[in-house]
From TrEMBL:
Active site, renumbered: R21, N39
Catalytic function, reaction form: an acyl phosphate + H2O = a carboxylate + phosphate + H(+)
Coiled-coil ranges (or none): none
Domain (Acylphosphatase-like): residue spans on this chain: 6-93
Keywords of the record: Hydrolase
Protein name according to UniProt: acylphosphatase
InterPro entries: Acylphosphatase, Acylphosphatase-like_dom, Acylphosphatase-like_dom_sf
Molecular-function GO term, any one: acylphosphatase activity
Length: 93
């Protein structure tokens, strides 16, 4: 079984108030990604996701485009060792 990694991302641009978090959760659930997404006070959206490296590559591509109404101007991404702390993908309010 392939090992899991953690993706930590910050999406910048028009990403709040445009359905971005709900879209990310829907896509994560479809792709088998576990983690959390939430808004930041600076207007960005923070995503923590765990899955296999291949799935995270695809998920990162989803994040870089975002929901139909979003306009992702920059996506800052780091990869780390997975912790296994998530049992599903959630939206934190």
């Amino acid at each position: 079984m392939p090992s899991h990694e953690r993706l930590v991302a910050y999406a910048h641009g028009r990403v709040q108030g445009v359905g971005f978090r709900v879209y990310v959760k829907r896509m994560a659930s479809m792709m088998g990604v576990r983690g959390v997404v939430y808004n930041q006070k600076d207007g960005s959206v923070h995503v923590i996701a765990e899955a296999t490296p291949h799935v995270l590559d695809e998920f990162e591509a989803v994040l870089s485009v975002g929901s139909p109404a979003a306009q992702v101007e920059r996506l800052d991404v780091e990869r780390e060792k997975a912790t296994g702390e998530f049992s599903r993908f959630t939206v934190h309010r």
